[in-house]
Amino acid sequence: MGTLYYGDSQTPIGIDDRALTHLQLVIITKLRRGEAFTLSWRHTDDEPRGRTTIWLSNSMPLRFVFDEEDAPELNHAWVEELMKSANSTGGVQLVPENLDSSPIATTPEQPVGVGVDVQQVED
Predict the structure, then answer these.
(1) CB-based contacts of 7: which residues, under 8 Å, 6+ apart?
(2) Does residue 17 belong to any structural domain of this protein?
(3) Global pTM?
């Protein structure tokens, strides 16, 4: 579980390392451009029911702390989804990652090529 320290808040915000890594990329990108925005999330099951929204701007100190030593591989589709929400009037909505684990569709009538061009040779 990673931690986001926001401003001089006495209450650190616990966010899964993987989610925090993706959020960090989006937050830093927005702040580097000088763009202020909101970040919202739903409370976890161990917190009182509800949601939280914070205002992020260059004037607010932020610190990202991760439990894991190595950064996870980025899911570019998730980053794009978070960036789209960051550019909307509603601000960044921390949504769960959607991993596409469905099989790749193939058509059985077509043989699968492996990069070898086979030609018929006549005698």
Answers:
(1) 60, 61, 62
(2) yes
(3) 0.73
